[in-house]
């Protein structure tokens, strides 16, 4: 997931630096591809956040619990 | 202007009331540094939003968009994306590994912590580099909005800040930030609704009007940052720097556990995401309705775009609605600065009192009451220093200093943090070197600094992943760690065969160290 958002964000800034013409393509009306990608990046960040919380709750937390109990059960973080 | 002043006084008295309430509940070190770790995810999320949406964001981003088009929007995107780094890498392990400060994390990995001094240095330098522009911004803003002289304004803000932090500790600081975040988001929501109402709820009209008025070049990147490498390095600086800002890190100690820390990051991402996306629209609307010439006339850097836009939407200069809107937005902007400087002062004072005085000079043997007293004293001193620096910083370009602070955080604090959380064999020497290299790198360009930070991080993640294996289980404890190290290995080894989940397990691992290592000591 780190790779996804890094590629998304750094990719966009790289495009902004080197491929202005590409970002100038029109998507709808006066809205160009650059602003469209910015909006996508916002959405991407939020989706990643939600996905991570979901994974953490369903997969990581139980895994942690298992290891904790294997060590005599610390009972979770403080 | 009297409206601004009235609303500002109202905010000030409410926050001082909160401070009084908080002061009566703040007795122990844990109360003072971390609000006794009893905040909920939503509270901490709002407070984080309050910490992170500084005046630079509130006023600066909309101004940049109004004057330079897409570059402003790219600027505003960075801080949100940066929270992905915080969420995925830093928030939870940080909560588990430390107690109050970054110094705790270092102390907890190393036996003889020369690196602690480096951590304290990093925290103090970053915080002052961040504090100074905020004070200067506050002075400038209050002066522009109310006509009070610059020096008086800085002193006023500084005194309020000292009151919050010294008496109310983390609890008061948090609630000041929550109040401010709510006000700021409310202001943003109202303005956004009004902007959309003007264009009949068709956001695309904002773009086409801007294009009609300023030409297609306005909506393209490169108007503000002409060098492509500047764009990229700024982006990297943001994405890595946020996680290394001490006052953001301290916020994760105010919640009871890692799960709450995680949820609070999601809160702040939604709040801040809405807000930062909003600044782009405000900027465009400002350029469309108010006009770049009027914005430049009020402040050359475009910092007054949002107040001017609010005034226009309220009915224009001179009208009653316009004055109320202007006053409201301006007062919120000042409250914003107040909340941010309080957070900064608190995290600096905890670094000095907790890390430097208690752990470094006295080796951890200080009575709790005395430690709180020391922390309060140091926050007064920091406040006075901040006022002095703020007065001196008049006329310095504030945006440059903010970025400088974030870059130092990205290159000095972030690598150390990540390495001490994820690299098992990370030792004292490495930590010192990471900091020294990070800091001296500042003579170079912003780009190399950011990239070096990234490279360091990636390479050490790899070291981390490859070195965790089953055979570690049977190995004798290393030089530094003893009991703690053993626990670390025991925890990682069972997870190692899980392949791609390995890193994820590492994320969670530090909390066992705590249970079986420091937790029992």
Structure explained in plain terms:
The complex is a heterodimer of chains A (78) and B (521). Chain A is built from three helices and two strands. Chain A has 78 residues and is mainly α. In chain A, strand 1 and strand 2 form a beta hairpin. In chain A, helix 1 packs antiparallel against helix 3 (33-70). Chain A is elongated, with a radius of gyration of 20 Å. The longest helix of chain B is centred in the middle third of the chain and has 49 residues, at 150-198. Chain B contains 21 helices and no strands. Chain B has helices at residues 2-23, 29-34, 41-52, 55-68, 70-97, 102-109, 114-146, 150-198, 203-214, 228-241, 246-250, 258-290, 292-298, 305-314, 320-361, 368-392, 398-422, 428-440, 446-467, 483-496, 502-516. Chain B starts with a helix and ends in a 5-residue tail after the last helix. Chain B is globular. Chain B is an all-alpha fold and 521 residues long. Chains A and B meet through helix 1, strand 2 and helix 3 of A and helix 5, helix 9, helix 10, helix 12 and helix 20 of B.
Strand-helix topology:
The complex is a heterodimer of chains A (78) and B (521).
Chain A (H helix, E strand, L loop, with lengths): L1 H17 L1 H4 L2 E3 L2 E2 H38 L8
Antiparallel strand pairs in A: 1-2
Helix pairs in contact in A: 1-3
Chain B lengths: L1 H22 L5 H6 L6 H12 L2 H14 L1 H28 L4 H8 L4 H33 L3 H49 L4 H12 L13 H14 L4 H5 L7 H33 L1 H7 L6 H10 L5 H42 L6 H25 L5 H25 L5 H13 L5 H22 L15 H14 L5 H15 L5
Helix pairs in contact in B: 1-8, 1-15, 3-8, 3-12, 4-5, 4-12, 5-10, 5-12, 5-21, 6-7, 6-17, 7-8, 7-15, 7-16, 7-17, 7-18, 8-12, 8-15, 8-16, 9-12, 10-17, 10-19, 12-13, 12-14, 14-15, 15-16, 17-18, 17-19, 20-21
Number of H/I helices of chain B: 21
Radius of gyration of chain B: 23 Å
Morphology of chain B: globular
Largest contact between protein chains? A-B, 51 and 66 residues
Which segments of chain B are poorly predicted (pLDDT under 50) over 5 or more consecutive residues? 438-521
Give the strand tally of chain B: 0
Please give the share of residues in helix of chain A: over 70%
Give the biggest sheet of chain A: 2 strands, antiparallel
């Amino acid at each position: 997931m780190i790779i996804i958002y890094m590629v998304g964000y750094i990719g966009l800034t790289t495009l902004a630096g080197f491929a202005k013409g590409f970002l100038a393509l029109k998507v709808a009306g006066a809205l160009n591809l650059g602003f469209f990608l910015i909006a996508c990046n916002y959405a991407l960040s939020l989706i990643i956040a939600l996905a991570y919380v979901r994974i953490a709750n369903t997969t990581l937390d139980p895994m942690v619990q298992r290891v904790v109990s294997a060590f005599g059960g610390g009972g979770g973080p403080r | 202007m009297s409206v601004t002043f009235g609303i500002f006084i109202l905010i000030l008295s409410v926050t001082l009331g909160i401070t009084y309430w908080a002061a009566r509940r703040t007795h122990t070190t844990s109360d003072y540094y971390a609000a006794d770790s009893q905040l909920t995810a939503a509270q901490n999320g709002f407070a984080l939003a309050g910490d992170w949406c500084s005046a630079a964001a509130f006023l600066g981003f909309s101004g940049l968009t109004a004057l330079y088009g897409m570059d402003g929007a790219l600027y505003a995107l960075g801080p949100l994306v940066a929270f992905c780094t915080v969420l995925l890498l830093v928030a939870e392990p940080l909560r588990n590994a430390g107690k109050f400060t970054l110094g705790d994390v270092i102390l907890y990995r190393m036996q003889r912590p020369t690196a602690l001094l480096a951590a304290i240095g990093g925290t103090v330098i970053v915080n002052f580099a961040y504090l100074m522009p905020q004070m200067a911004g506050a002075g400038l803003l209050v002066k522009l909005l109310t006509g009070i002289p610059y020096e008086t304004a800085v002193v006023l803000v500084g005194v309020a800040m000292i009151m919050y932090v010294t008496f109310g500790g983390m609890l008061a600081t948090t609630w000041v930030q929550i109040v401010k975040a709510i006000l700021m988001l409310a202001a943003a929501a109202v303005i956004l609704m009004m902007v959309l109402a003007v264009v009949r709820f068709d956001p695309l009209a904002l773009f086409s009007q801007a294009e009609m008025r300023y030409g297609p070049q306005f909506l393209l990147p490169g108007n503000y940052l002409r060098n492509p490498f500047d764009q990229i390095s700024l982006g990297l600086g943001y994405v890595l720097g946020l996680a290394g800002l001490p006052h953001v890190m301290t916020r994760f100690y105010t919640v009871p556990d890692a799960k709450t820390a995680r949820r609070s990051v999601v809160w702040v991402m939604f709040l801040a995401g809405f807000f930062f996306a909003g600044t782009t629209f405000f900027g465009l609307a400002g350029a469309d309705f108010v006009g770049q010439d009027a914005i430049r006339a009020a402040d050359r850097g475009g910092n007054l775009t949002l107040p001017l836009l609010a005034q226009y939407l309220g009915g224009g200069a001179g009208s009653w609605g316009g004055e109320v809107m202007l006053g409201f937005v301006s007062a919120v902007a000042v409250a914003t600065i107040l909340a941010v400087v309080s957070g900064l002062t608190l995290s600096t004072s905890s670094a000095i009192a907790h890390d430097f005085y208690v752990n470094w000079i006295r080796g951890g043997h200080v009575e709790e009451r005395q430690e709180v007293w020391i922390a309060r004293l140091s926050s007064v001193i920091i406040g006075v220093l901040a006022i002095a620096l703020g007065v001196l910083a008049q006329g310095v370009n504030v945006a440059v200093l903010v970025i400088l602070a974030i870059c130092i955080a990205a290159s000095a604090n972030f690598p150390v943090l990540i390495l001490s959380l994820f690299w098992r064999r990370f030792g004292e020497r490495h930590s010192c070197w990471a900091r020294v290299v990070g800091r001296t790198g500042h003579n170079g360009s912003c780009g190399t600094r950011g990239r070096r930070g990234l490279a360091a991080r990636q390479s050490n993640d790899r070291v981390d992943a490859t070195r965790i294996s089953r055979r570690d289980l049977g190995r004798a404890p290393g030089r530094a760690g003893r009991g703690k190290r053993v626990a670390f290995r025991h925890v990682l080894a069972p997870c190692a065969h899980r392949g791609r989940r390995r890193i994820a397990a590492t994320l969670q691992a530090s909390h066992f160290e705590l249970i079986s290592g420091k937790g029992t000591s």
